[in-house]
Write a structure and sequence with these properties.
mainly alpha; three-stranded mixed beta sheet; three-stranded parallel beta sheet; about 55% helix; about 5% strand; disordered C terminus
């Protein structure tokens, strides 16, 4: 049997680092894991935690960064990465503690300072929302279409006062987006209010059938890649009554055109409510939007006031779909509870954020699962 040497460990570490730099995350995980079999090293644990963050395996990132801290309590990167995992899981108090510790160990860590401030803002926001929860005035209820005046300089597509979405409007809107322009805030508001009503009437788990002679396409994460979305429609055909689509969550964040993506998808849902389906993913949540870019993009393009309205609409998205009584579709994963049924899932109150303490575990798993379920949601 061959005897492992320190050189073997260094080779595996170097290969893991090289794969990470090339964004080959699965290979990086493999090399780091093999290196850890030779030596339980806090640096490798911290590196593997970063890979898990990139892959959104937040439970695994928590486990590795915690192990790194146990081996080296002065590891500022481990505290920062554990804080990032807690933040993504909407555990802002725990995240804030780790970011604060990272700042104490490394006072020039500006990223930790920025995240620490975000944690404080989110904690304050959650307390405020809890304080006014009995008032029950939603952002959509405060939204008045007539507050948005469309000036003569606007050269984009328009909707009538009733907000009815037509195929020609969507086609014009897509061309407008491709030209690097935005639609008017008034029409954004109309799309949001209209699609919200459609989603609110749907169950948590939708029953969908495929009519004879029609095509049904299931698409995964779009993540703000508007031109990829356009290519899907160009190659596979635009959505119609006979060309049905289901987009399985994670429409926004990461890409630079999340606003264009989500408005296009919402507009098609309004046009074809029974032939265009959208399910909620873990990125249709306010914490992930704050972390991965959608809130910043939305604020820049349409103003901060729209963030709470999008939060509300995202909470109305269905959580899953049963296709032709045979296929169960959801963004996250299955449940450790073998007794779970569609009826139980439909009985849940889905109109919440995952950070809400009242949200039950099954709701969180269906849109946001993790390899380490005990870390997923406390």
């Amino acid at each position: 049997m061959a005897v492992s040497t320190p050189e073997d460990f260094d080779v595996l570490k170097s290969k893991g680092n090289a794969c990470f730099n090339e964004c080959l995350y699965s290979q990086a995980l493999s090399f780091y894991s093999d290196a850890l079999k030779l030596k339980n090293d806090p640096i490798i644990l911290c590196n593997r935690a970063l890979v898990h963050l990139k892959c959104e395996n937040f439970g695994s990132a928590l486990s590795d960064s915690s192990a790194a801290i146990a081996l080296n309590p002065q590891n500022t990167k481990a505290y920062y990465r554990r804080g990032m995992a807690y933040f993504a899981l909407t555990k802002f108090t725990l995240a804030g503690r780790d970011f604060k510790k990272s700042i104490l160990l490394s006072p020039t860590n500006h990223a930790a300072r920025s995240r620490f401030e975000e944690c404080k803002k989110n904690i304050k926001r959650l307390k405020f929302e809890a304080a006014i929860s009995n008032v029950n005035i939603r952002a959509s209820e405060r939204l008045n279409i007539d507050d948005f005046f469309v000036g003569e300089s606007y050269d984009g597509p328009c909707l009538d006062h009733d907000g009815k979405i037509t195929e020609s409007f969507i086609e014009s809107m897509v061309v407008h987006f491709k030209n690097g322009k935005q639609i008017h805030k008034r029409f954004v508001a109309q799309i949001l209010l209209r699609v919200k009503k459609i989603f609110e009437e749907l169950p948590n788990i939708c029953e969908v059938s495929i009519p004879n002679g029609s095509t049904f396409t299931i698409c995964g994460d779009i993540h703000g890649q508007f031109f990829d979305l356009c290519n899907i429609f160009e190659i596979n055909g635009k959505p119609t009554h006979d060309n049905t689509y289901l987009f399985n969550g994670d429409f926004v964040d990461r890409g630079s055109f999340s606003c264009e993506v989500i408005l296009t998808l919402f507009a098609y849902k309004c046009l074809l409510p029974k032939h265009f389906h959208l399910l909620r993913g873990n990125h249709e949540t306010n914490a992930m939007n704050a972390l991965y870019g959608f809130q910043g993009e939305l604020t820049q393009k349409y103003g901060k006031s729209f963030t709470s309205i999008f939060d509300e609409v995202f909470c109305t998205l269905p959580l899953g779909c049963v296709l032709s009584e045979q296929i169960f579709i959801m963004h996250g994963g299955l449940f450790s509870d073998s007794e779970i049924t569609i009826q139980r899932l439909n009985a849940m109150d889905r109109f919440k954020e995952p950070s809400d303490v009242k949200v039950i575990f099954h709701f969180k798993c269906i849109s946001f699962s993790s390899p380490f379920l005990e870390w997923c949601f406390f």
